[in-house]
Design goal:
heterodimer, A: 178 residues, alpha+beta, B: 143 residues, 4-stranded antiparallel sheet, 4 helices, rod-shaped
């Protein structure tokens, strides 16, 4: 038996094995962390639906959208102009009175540790209205629950524009890095 | 100089190849069991169907964008407006979500096949000219 050939082949074969084991380790740990992260995001589903229902199904407290001082005294904010899922352009613009933290607080997500992140995107399907409120989406985590909703926007001329509303909700410092 | 591959070396290489196949099989299994990071789960179809029905019911009606009540006001109106109504429904739904509506006047869209994720929402509508209460159903589904 040729000992030199045996050593070279042995080393080559087990080098390939070692590389494959490293690959499987990283892939498996990534898959597991993805699974846990999806679980974290999924836990936010009821909260995201609750936020969406408040925005799309209720008018909010009277005149919260008129000026910044009214918005500070709002007990609830809702975007409908009366009918469920029929949004008022005035109220959509009224969300500008809130900064990201204030919007979160107005929607009942206030937390001392600033744990939650919230982003709301409202876009009419014809492209004439596009508004975004809240925090920017975190670039480095997958722990974001995305709740797509359907609405229509009644503009000042009484024209209805079908729209999509997307609510993003996440918890900071939780989840896997993308 | 000794050859790099002799009979004994070939055996080692075959062993490594077999082990690699086993490792790749495990790798494939782990990948296939991982669930998606961003969840739009089937019961979100229930929320979307509620939204869609509210929009179709509460928004104003026009020739290009008829409302649900207007479309169901009579069989004749259904014939004229149902295609436009269905077009609006399709455009409002997120990608990959489809709709099917069953009414006494007829159906819209394609019904989901066996085993597909779906959510069925029954609803009642006023038949307008006929004065009847119509028993209808809206189904959202994913392919």
């Amino acid at each position: 038996m040729d000992e030199a050939a045996f050593s070279v082949d042995f080393a080559a074969a087990y080098t390939v094995m070692a590389i494959l084991f490293v690959c499987i380790f990283f892939t498996a740990t990534n898959a597991i962390s993805t699974r846990y992260t999806a679980g974290y995001a999924d836990e936010l589903r009821p909260l995201a639906i609750q936020v969406g229902d408040e925005l799309l199904k209720t008018p909010g407290s009277p005149y919260w959208y008129m000026d910044p001082s009214s918005s500070k005294n709002a007990t609830a904010i809702g975007l409908t102009e009366g009918g469920r899922n029929v949004l008022s352009t005035y109220k959509i613009e009224g969300l500008n009175f809130y900064n990201a933290s204030g919007l979160k607080e107005a929607l009942g997500l206030s937390d001392k540790d600033e744990e939650y992140g919230l982003r709301i995107e409202i876009k009419s399907l014809d492209g004439t209205i596009s508004r975004t409120y809240g925090y920017p989406l975190p670039p480095d985590t997958r722990d974001v629950f995305k709740s797509p909703r359907i609405a229509t926007i009644k503009d000042q001329d009484g024209i209805y524009r079908d729209a999509s509303v997307i609510i993003y909700l996440w918890r900071k410092d939780v989840g896997a890095v993308a | 100089m000794a050859p790099l591959l002799n009979d004994d070396g070939t055996v080692h290489m075959i062993e490594a190849a077999l082990a690699s196949v086993l490792v790749l099989a495990v790798l494939f299994f782990v990948n296939s069991t991982a669930i998606q990071a961003h969840g739009e789960r089937p019961n979100d179809l229930g929320v979307l169907s509620s939204d869609l029905l509210d929009v179709l019911t509460c928004r104003g009606s026009s020739l290009e964008h008829p409302g649900l009540g207007f479309t169901l006001s009579s069989g004749e109106q259904w014939k004229h407006s149902s295609a436009a109504l269905y077009s609006d429904m399709e455009s409002m739904l997120p990608d990959g979500v489809y709709c099917y509506m069953a009414t006494p006047y007829g159906t819209l869209g394609q019904a989901p096949g066996e085993g597909m994720e779906s959510y069925s929402r029954p609803f009642l509508a006023y038949g307008g000219q006929s004065g009847q209460i119509l028993d209808c159903k809206l189904v959202l589904w994913r392919a």
